[in-house]
Write a structure and sequence with these properties.
The chain is of the alpha+beta class. It is built from seven helices and five strands; from the N terminus they run ααααααβββββα. The radius of gyration is 16 Å and the shape is globular.
Length: about 170
């Protein structure tokens, strides 16, 4: 959860110039569960590279943003430790992490409609998954989103799939 919070605190994790390489780089780390776990993969790979600038250039990852995310995560970990809360990793248990996200963002749930759009639980607004999301055109029945933005139409970003029963467990 600390890694996700740190990664969402920065903008433009991937170099954004519209090149096909950008989409390819994003897909390389993509996981079917969604954007949050994809960002965790990028973060872990960056740390494994020892925060290498060359690694970032080769993978179209923004080195400055990643360095900030690492610094932010370190600060968050220090705060949590200072509060006496043990730092426990969920490891590869993606369901544990997605349940945690459900607990924090249950108000930002949306259900897939027959036409492929989503309807938000709060406000029943019709939205689309933004094309930069790894969840774009995946068709997950239920999702949580980090943010709703309006450009040419309402889009949700920072999207992950969830099980609907998780909402009743945390709400």
């Amino acid at each position: 959860a600390l890694t996700i919070a740190a990664m969402f605190s920065v903008q433009n994790v991937f170099v954004q110039d519209g090149a096909a390489d950008e989409k390819s780089a994003r897909r390389h780390y993509a996981v079917r569960e969604g954007d949050q776990l994809t960002l965790v993969n990028v973060y872990n790979a960056f740390e494994s590279s020892k925060r290498s600038q060359q690694w970032c250039q080769a993978r179209r990852v923004n080195h400055r943003s990643m360095t900030r995310a690492c610094d932010t995560r370190k600060q968050l970990a220090a705060y949590v430790t200072k509060l006496g809360v043990p730092l426990v990793s969920c490891g590869r248990e993606s369901d544990v992490l997605r349940r945690c996200i459900a607990g924090a963002f249950f108000c930002n749930a949306a259900k897939l409609e027959a036409d492929g759009a989503y309807k938000t639980i709060r406000g029943e607004q019709r939205v689309q998954v933004h094309p930069v999301s790894v969840m774009h055109q995946r068709g997950a029945q239920w999702v949580l989103y980090h943010e709703l933005i309006v450009t040419t139409k309402p889009y949700i970003i920072g999207v992950c799939s969830i099980e609907p029963q998780w909402l009743s467990e945390v709400a």
